[in-house]
Design brief:
Strand content: 15-25%
CATH topology of one domain: Rossmann fold
Largest sheet: 7 strands, mixed
Shape: globular
Structural class: alpha/beta
CATH superfamily of one domain: NAD(P)-binding Rossmann-like Domain
CATH class of one domain: Alpha Beta
Amino acid sequence: MPPAPAVVVNVVWTAGISVIHSLGRAGIPVHAVDFRPDALGFRSRFATTHVSPRRLDDEDAFVEFLARVGDRLDAPAPIFPLDDDDLNAIARRRDELGARFLYPFPDWETLRRIQDKRHQLVRARALGVPTPQTASEPTDELGFPVLVKPAEPGDFRRRFGVKAFRCESYAELEAAWERARGFDALVWELIPGGDEELYTLGSYVTPGGDALAVFTGRKLVQDPPGVGTARVAESVWVPELVDVGLKLLRGLGCHGPSQVEFKRDPRDGVFKLIEVNPRLWQWHGLTGACGVDVALVAYRDLVGETIPATVMRPIRKRWAITLKADRPPLPQRPPYVDPLLPLDDPAVAVTHLARYARSLAGSKRS
């Protein structure tokens, strides 16, 4: 009997492409969904492609499209949304999508609370998980710099193009606070230290609370620095993160694949919560190189396979986006994981290289 298919939503960049590779290399039929016809994941030899309506333009049409994709599949399919807003839309409309899909995340009411940064802080503090200091209004008591961060980042990021405002003075804080009105923001202490102090627990937790896949690692370079997404990351085994991170996930009622991000405070060596993302994350493709492929474990559990709990091998491996438009190249010492330059998926690599070359030519002309 052939394996059940999987659906991956949002394959324009590294997260979705990494899921395609994790599942496709295991022989699983992958259906890739994106509203952008030129999404890089559509070039993958492992994917059947589906160009969807843009959810932001018409959520009803987006959900109806997913339902039609599901109707054409031979079996209920694990569905992996790689963007918070797509995840939330699918969770809200889960009753309409029904048994066409298998869902690696909690019901909408639980998920909505998990996504709320204020709720994350409240639960973390109740469970004894260290957090940065925060304030509900502008203050100079946290020192500077500080961050102004929304409770829910989706609309904020679309409005301002960033996940948070960094403020170096009280005047900047007041201005940022005014801009953030309506986004239920908090003022966050900015823990000192560079990008290399940002650590991640990546895991897959069953609805019953069993951790079937466990990984830890850290960012080395973010883009942009300070408050951005990973450009270079490495695996590093930190048992302390496993203990505190799984306690928080269970306390939040969070199951499925997730990332819990911490920053190690160099002032006291304590790992302090940054955020919980109840989905696969930007650099989860590194987990497979460490012997615990979180996306594949999630798929196998969802389709009903009996699988043992796995923990990453305590080895150091690297992940990087080597080439990125308008940024310096960041090659690492081989071997390392670059989801955009896969040797076994040449159309993805060639397309990425061609687009990078065009961006360089455009920069020289300007």
